[in-house]
């Protein structure tokens, strides 16, 4: 069976539409949370050299620059913004972390 050019175009457009729909559905399930949390040593874990923050039963990827900001010996309250996807059970990443009460111009 030989497909004509019109059939190939219809198949390609259908696949493109299905792909765009799947990507859109996945990204619509992204959730962003911003709140103040008390952090202690039990909330921070390390796996294979990467750091994770345990919040609300989620393992959130904690970038190194945010990990370096955490000073548990001085402060335990931090304003944290994280993003996760409702489709994936344990998916998530910290996208903002600053000490509670820290001013934008502060260190």
Automatic annotation (TrEMBL):
It comes from the Bacteria. The chain crosses the membrane at residues 7-28. Keywords: Membrane, Transmembrane, Transmembrane helix. This is DUF3139 domain-containing protein.
């Amino acid at each position: 069976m030989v497909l004509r050019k019109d059939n190939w175009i219809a198949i390609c457009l259908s696949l493109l539409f299905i792909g765009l729909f799947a990507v859109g559905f996945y990204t619509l399930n992204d959730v962003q949370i911003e709140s103040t949390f008390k952090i202690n040593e039990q909330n921070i874990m390390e796996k294979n050299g990467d750091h994770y923050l345990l919040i609300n039963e989620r393992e959130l990827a904690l970038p190194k620059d945010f990990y370096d900001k955490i000073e548990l010996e001085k402060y335990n309250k931090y304003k944290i913004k994280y993003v996760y996807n409702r489709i994936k059970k344990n998916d998530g990443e910290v996208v903002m972390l600053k000490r509670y009460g820290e001013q934008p111009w502060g260190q």
